[in-house]
Amino acid sequence: MLDFIMVPTVMAIICAGIYGLFELFVRRNERMAIIEKIGDKLDASAFEGKLGLPSYTKKYSFSSLKAGLLLAGIGLGLLVGFLININALPYNQFGNDWNMREVSGIVYGASVLFFGGLGLILSFIIEISMSKKKD
């Protein structure tokens, strides 16, 4: 059925792969040239006292907390939306199937947005309390 799309799609994938491979080698050569150019100008005294591991105890990154609580809120929202659809919306309540799907979509969307927002608010509260403890 979609035979007319297959040949251009395969050719586009092959051309993109070859282009990516050439670009990979060209970038590698450019990087090596830059490293060689910089290496000639620097000596070991430029790095005195500057090499070492950064201190991670002073800074907190809350991006993983935000992402985790957002995903937990979305998962909880999907679960609550499913439970609402199973328990509160009997299948014989609506005359046609379109209204049932519309109401189910609204319930799922609203519960996902609500609980996702609650997850972000919870991460904000945790960030505030952690920053107060730190100071």
TrEMBL record:
Q: Which InterPro entries match?
A: DUF6249 (IPR046216), MEP_Accessory_AcrZ (IPR053730)
* Transmembrane annotation, as ranges: 6-26, 67-86, 106-126
**Does the record's keyword annotation contain Transmembrane helix?**
yes
Keyword presence, Transmembrane helix: yes
Could you tell me the superkingdom of the organism this chain comes from?
Bacteria
Record's keyword terms, sorted: Membrane, Transmembrane, Transmembrane helix
Q: Where is the DUF6249 domain?
A: 9-127
Protein known as: DUF6249 domain-containing protein
Source organism per entry reads Macellibacteroides fermentans
